[in-house]
Every structure is written in C-alpha cells, then in structure tokens.
Amino acid sequence: MTQHNDQQAQRKAAMAVLAHAEAGEIAARLRILALPGHQDLREGESGLVMLRGRVGGDGAPFNLGEATVSRAAVRLASGEVGFGYTLGRDREKARLIALCDALAQSRDFGAAVERDVIAPLRQELLARRKQTAAQTAATKVDFYTMVRGEG
Amino acid sequence: MYVAVKGGERAIENAHRLLANARRGDQSVPEVTLDQISEQLGLAVDRVMSEGSLYDRELAALAIKQARGDLIEAIFLVRAFRATLPRFGASEPVDTGAMRVQRRVSSTFKDIPGGQILGPTFDYTHRLLDPTLAEGFVPEEPATGEASTAATPRVTDILGRDGLIESSPQAEEGASVGDLTREPLNFPADRDLRLQNLARGDEGFLLAMGYSTQRGYGRNHPFAGEIRFGEVEVEFFTEDVGFAVPLGAIELTECQMVNQFKGSATEAPCFTRGYGLAFGQSERKTMSMALVDRALRARELGEEVGAPAQDEEFVMSHSDNVQATGFVEHLKLPHYVDFQSELGLLRKLRQEFAEANTAEPMKEAAE
C-alpha cells in the first residue's frame, strides 16, 4: 500500500511539472529516450473543467468559471497505462504527459523518464519561479511611520 | 417581439466582408498577433476571461481581435465558444492561501506576515501620458530582491485567530455546489450562486454598485483587508486516474473586504466579510465584487434592506453583460410587424381624438 502511495505521489509530482511545460519542451526531452512501443488508449480531446474557489478563500466551494482542459491516455506495449491532463487546448501536450505518466510507472523506464525528462523540466520551472519571486520581492514595502511633529 | 425577415442575405454577406476589412484597418500597418494581445494587452485578456467565464488566454486574445477590441463582444464570443465543448467535471477548490503571490497589499495592517508586496501596479503612478511608450520603448530590467520563503497567510485568517472576524461559512456534508450555467436562477439565491454570478458579472456594473454602497446606498463600512494576485495550482480529481491530477496553474486576484460589525446577545461582536475572486489581475473587479457580495448579505445579517446593491434579484438579474447586451441590442433587429400594429393603434387613437375635438365645437356652435 505504501509502495502504491509512493508511486502515486511520484506520478502526481511529475504531472505537476509536466503541466507547466510546453508540448515542444516535453517532446524534445523525450527524444533522448529510446521509447518502447505504445499506443493511444484514448485519443487527445479538449473540454472544460469548472474551476472552484471557496467563499472567503477557506469556506464552502463555489463555481468561479471554467477553463479549457485537454486529456489523453496512452498504453505501453508492456501494459502500463498513463494519463495526461493539462489546462489549455493542446491535445498533443496531453498525449505527451500521458506517455510520460505511463513511462514513469514502468520498471524499465521509470528512472530514465524521471532523470531525462521530469528532473530537467522541474529545474527550469523552479528557475522561472525563482526569478518571478526575486522580482516580486524587490517590490516589498518597508514601511516606517512618521511620528507627528517630526520631520 | 421581432419577426424574422428574408431578403437581406446579400447585404448581410457584404456587410460582413466590409466588417472584415474594417477590422483589419489600414493594411500597410502590421497585423496584430494573438501573442501581442496576450502579452501587451494582458488586462483586457484577463477581463474577457473573467466575464467570459473561461480561462484560456489564447481564446480570449482571439476574441478581442475578432471583436475589434470591443470587450463585451469578445466576452460574448467566448461564452458562445464554451457552449461547444463538453465538461469533464469540476476542479478541487483552489487554495488561495497557497498562492505564489506577485502582489499583496492590506489597508488594515501595516505589518502583515509576508509583507506588503506592490508587484506590477498602476498605484502611485502619476497618470500622465507617457510619450516614450509611443514607439520602441525598452523597459529597464526588473529589480530583484531576496525572496522570502515565509508563508503569506490571508489577513482574514490572522484576524480570525482572535475571533475578531466572522469565519467563512462551511459547506454542509455532501452539499452540491450551485451552478447557474446548469440550472435557472431562483431567488433567494445562496452565496455560492451569488459569487458565481458576480465573478462573471460586468466590471462596470459591479463598480457602480460597489460605489453606490460607499456613497450611502447600503453603507457597510469597508476596509480592503487584503488584495492578492498571483498563481494558484489547479487539481482535478478523476476516476480513471484515481487521484487529484495537477492541471497547471492559473492567475487569480482575490479581495477580502473587512466590514463593520455583527453581534448579538449571545455572540460577541466581530467584523463581517465580503469576498471577491476573479481570473487574472482584476483588482477593480474583485474589490467591487467584494463590496457587492457584502451588501447582498444584508438580509442574512439582519440589516435593513433598501438599497439597490442589497437587492439580490436586482443585482443578479442585471450583472451579466452578455444577457444585458442581448436584450438591449435586440431592439435594433426588425420589429416591423410589432411596430405596424402599434402604428395602427396610434392612428385609431388619433382619429378618435380628432373626432372628439371636431365634434365638440360644432356642438357648441349649434347651441
């Protein structure tokens, strides 16, 4: 059960990185691997997901508005089934995420896809976030209150 | 009502060809690209996504281009597009407390944990037109600072710890979330439906309604407890995968209004809240939304209801600019048959009036 949970956490962490990458970036990384045979279990399709917020940020949920979402499923010749979901209408990106998810579950390819695809994309994502955070930090206010009668 | 008329096909076709040319404008001027709209008119894109109720920057940019910059027309186009796609389901509620904050200000506390962060803002600009922007402007590189790893808790959470502010209403076990795109609106409407309505409501309408509460039509003494803008992660639980799948991140603006007190013989007085949330960087929208959300809670909080912003039927029935524009603009469609019958009635009334007025003097003369 813990092994199952570990794998689930790892798949989720990989998806969280892949969803932020462009299809081209994922495809370029995947070219490094000698991919096993695979087929589309469910062809990519685009649809909507209703995005929910919470009243007051932490209360009961409400429907904020929809987002476009694409999804796909891929099966490796060895049987592993991967799923790809992403914001936006890029069905090819959903297929590539599904392929990565299937590879991540495979005994033979799990380590390689993490090393050659997910890890470098994660580094790039974290670098982008770090840059935004640094630029944001420069706009932080250092308040000082003037006492009446002074200055 | 209007009646369909035939015969204008060629005129319509030619009018649309003319529109396509007018949209393109002078063809010696380069065509605007969707990337340019998305990158350089980003706040227009944010508004179209919010009120079009569809998070997709590229589609919103296309809609703005197609609508020649008419944002309400663009919102209409986006709403029509969303009707063509199947819905996979609903996301897990986003956690705005975990937002990667790019702007976060509070007008109630100077020293908030995580700090006051201005981010990219028009605040404190002098509102003078800048001629250097006219062409070839290259901005300075943004300054950078040491990013803190400290959490940025919501200001309302901090106030809530001491019980100084009411807590957010929690959902009852197994309660469904109201969706006005699926079921017709009934009054009174619960807070979830009201917030959904306001989130897609017209910014100008909400601004005017919020403003009216400040001017005394349903006064509720607001403070901008917190406004934050940044990215939040979205997750979607799906049976096939078996866990909540990360979909990527969206940009949101959240506004927490802190308003004057409620309390009773059994409950200590505390601040009340109004809430605003919208796609993208939509500060004016979320502030207005939070003011109106609070005003619409008048009945629930036992306040006198009398101002327009406190009347949920009035607010919710008139906030949607696609509905409003549909009804206002349909007046320009052919109403020939309707008008003919009104014209007939008017002629009859005028004839009766004339007969009555010519008969009178003759009667007098005869006497």
Question: How would you describe the overall organization of this protein?
Answer:
- The complex is a heterodimer of chains A (151) and B (367).
- Chain A is of the alpha+beta class and 151 residues long.
- Chain A has helices spanning 2-18, 23-30, 91-104, 110-137; strands at 38-54, 61-76, 81-87.
- In chain A, helix 1 (2-18) packs antiparallel against helix 3 (91-104), helix 2 runs parallel beside helix 3 and helix 2 (23-30) packs antiparallel against helix 4.
- Chain A is globular, with a radius of gyration of 21 Å.
- Chain B has 367 residues and is of the alpha+beta class.
- Helices cover 39% and strands 15% of the residues of chain B.
- Chain B is built from 12 helices and 6 strands.
- In chain B, strands 3-4-5-6 form a 4-stranded antiparallel sheet.
- The mean pLDDT of chain B is 93.
By DSSP, the count of extended strands of chain B is: 6
What are the low-pLDDT stretches of chain A, counting only 5+ consecutive residues below 50? Answer: none
Topology order of chain A in helix (H) and strand (E) letters? HHEEEHH
General form of chain B: globular
Mean pLDDT of chain B: 93
Radius of gyration of chain A, CA atoms, in whole angstroms: 21 Å
**Proportion in β-strands of chain B:** 15-25%
Basic shape of chain A: globular
Largest sheet of chain A: 3 strands, antiparallel
Number of domains of chain B: 2
Give the helix proportion of chain A (percent range): 40-55%
Distance between the termini of chain B: 50 Å
Report how far apart the termini of chain A are: 67 Å
